[in-house]
Amino acid sequence: LPSLPLPSSMHLIQVDSVQRWMEDLKLMTDCECMCILQSKPISIEKDEQNELILSSQYSTCDNLQLLLKRAWIISTELTRIAQKLEKNRWQRVHSMTVRVNCHVRSMINEYNTFTRNSSEEMHEFEKLLIDKCSEFTASTERCIQTEDEQILKSMKSCINETLTTIAQYFGQLIELVLTHEAQNLLRQIELSDSVYVTESAISSLFSLTQEGAHLCRIIAKEGGVVALFKICRQDCFRCLYPQTLRTLASICCVEEGMHQLEKVDGILCLADILTDNTHSEATHAEAAAVIAQITSPHLTFTQHLSSFLENMEEIVTALVKLCQEASSGEVFLLASAALANITFFDTMACEILLQLNAMKILLAACSDKHIVDTPYSRDQVVTILANMSVLDQCASEIIQGNGVQLLMEMLFERSSSGNSAEVAACERVQQKSAVTLARLSRDPEVADAAIKLSCIPRLIKLCRSPTERNNSDSVLVACLAALRRLAVMSPDGLEDSDFQQLVKPRLVDSFLLCTNMEESFV
Description:
This is INSC protein. By secondary structure, the protein is mostly helical. Helices cover about 75% and strands about 0% of the residues. Among the domains are: about 55-175, Four Helix Bundle (Hemerythrin (Met), subunit A) (Up-down Bundle), CATH 1.20.120.330; about 375-520, Alpha Horseshoe (Leucine-rich Repeat Variant). The longest helix has about 45 residues, at about 150-190.
């Protein structure tokens, strides 16, 4: 047929739909065809060479990604069936049930083509799931053949129960499959002396960690942290350290990963890596990323921190050195993030940083736009400054390093992209720079420097103009606190209206006044 001219928007939709269809085509094939094709042997003889050709067509990582995508489709379809069933859309329920049946069979067949040592328990669940799906399809087919409301009503509860059972079997099967694959990968890591095989297994393991916390828990429970730290203690695998440490950082986002790290003296191993100058910068940076992960103030589990304190001085010293010698913004970000997190849970860290001239190093780094090149990096630096500012000796360091000027600049932090994560980082930079100013301004010299740099007008603007602070309440509170501290040192620097509204009332009253200004501008 001759092609008809289409509006540009419709043409775009058509292209997008075709591309989407092409992507999903291999997941939408007829299950009977799949069964026939996949059960055909390449050769009559069961030689190992043919098996090797079959298994090498796709990597384990590709196969797992295909499995996870298929599982996501099945899970989504089951949810949609439940919704259609609630509305008594029997025709739709049946067609979707047939489709799920197809997906389940295809998923099982696909999985069995690239795994050879699946357990008896897995085979049992496969059979249970297939049988239940067949029963489900037969039940929904009977429903579309009758119009009797009473019969449909009585069948609906049975179909709901069958759907629930399928979802349970499916969830248990996927859990078994993922556990089995994690075990296989960890077995490869533990038993192989080949750098290539180990690298491939670690790469597949890292891909699994990116699928969410649940998979990280499975890997941790199966001994993933133990196996990876074993790699980090063998010189023959030095070239794999960065990749191994990156995978460890992902697993340690869950409590099970932390427990494993504690059991294998992981923190001591990380300290050894960070203090060993023969390692590459990439290895040091990834070790810093693990430290940043396990010291995150957002974690609710902190049992591992007792052993961390024993190695803290060595770790902090190595991280400061990494900040000083960082060749890129990414390396600096990882090292400074680790330092920022460490300063939250022990004041001793701040004292160590002061002794190491960390303030001078961080302030110097901020003047290099190639190193401190994003709001995320500035967020880490100002977090360290804010936590160090509780120490009295910090004020003189700030003055010497021209730190007040930097804090003033940070009060102007704005996102250039409008990206929500970047906007949030800019808000944190503004808030923490105001907090740091408030804390340091108890020293008259710092307060005087801040006043000379016109900090007071900027703080007033941030309080009075919601758009300047991106409507952030936390920035407003910090700016009010800093303004009040500076006003004590220089009451003449404020106009009477600013003093009466932003300084004289209780903090909460000034806060309410400024937030009401926001409403009046809308």
